[in-house]
Amino acid sequence: MTPFLQLIFVLTIILFASKLAGYLTTRLGQPAVLGELLVGLLLGPSLIDLTHLVFITDRHLSEVVAEFGEIGVLVLMFLAGLELHFSELTRNTRVAAFSGILGVLTPVGLGILAGEMFGYSFDNAAFIGLTLGATSVSISAQTLMELKVLRSRVGLGLLGAAVFDDILVILLLSTFLALSGGGSALDILLVLLKMIGFLSLSAAFGLWVLPKLSRRISNMPISQGILTFSLIIMMVYGLAAELIGGMAAITGTFLAGLMFARTPEKSQIEPGLRSLAYSFFVPIFFVNIGLSVDTHTLNLNALWLMLVISTFAILGKVIGCGLGAKLGGFNWLESLQLGIGMISRGEVGLIVASIGLAEGYINETVFSAIVGMVLITTLLTPPLLRASFRKVTVSSPAPVQE
Q1: What is a single cellular component term in the Gene Ontology annotation (predicted)?
Q2: What is the pLDDT of residue 391?
């Protein structure tokens, strides 16, 4: 088969398997995203190794599938922002700030403790802590959308906390790399200024320029012009978040969705984008998380470390984010729900760990343990989150904390 036919074959298997697995898990009372994650694990190098079958000769195929998946997570977070209103999120900043900050510092501290327990140097232990501090909120956002509680107090607090989490993890990572590499306080200040610059520019453009452009483009005789425009802005925000702010691209696309949520054109954008996302890109993203994990790399030397840091990773987010939410005014159940929603490390944890491996701060054994931790936290989050909302019914957006 030609490389193109190989791509079509792999995408066909991924899409069919993801929808079948999602259907089966919903029949079992679990979120569809859990089935998509599990089927990705089965199709990946842990069992079938779909992108490296004997008749697959294109060695770049797995990279192409992964890039489709990255588009999927960008669209997913854009849709999450599109479902909210900027005023709803800003009124919930106290919970978001407390949860985001404590939800990073607590697991980072526990990660350092785990590294020290296993006899690693402080630099190695610190990097283990940084991987535990990261959060991938895309898994939780999808689960909350399935449960129709994304606009509840917990959903709003979760998304706000994720923004604070992203900023703080990047600051801590940049500080660590600068200090260990002989950098100065000026380097750290530059990172902070870049973040402030990106957030200021994105807010200014979204509040004052975007509504006018959206209105003008929606009135033009262009087929699906406003939908295409929204995709362009989504990708520009994602690029700007990475290149200007030094932040994750998903933070940028989430902010882009928030800005479009303020415009009358939202009703034109959302149906088309939702169909495009959930029929193609988003299933590939969730399956690709499993495709990127090889459980054969989890050697026995890494097993105990994996179990310890996985336990600390879960407790760190539940306790840290939960306590932050409680301090912000949530009740105990809401605090627990928010803490559970922040457990997943997903692709963000793998990115931080890959930086540590490339820079020599962690070895292959530690990296294998972190991969196992990422897998465990990512798979546990959807069923735990669903269980925590089992007796909660939200028919309309709940009032947010002032």
Answers
A1: membrane
A2: 61
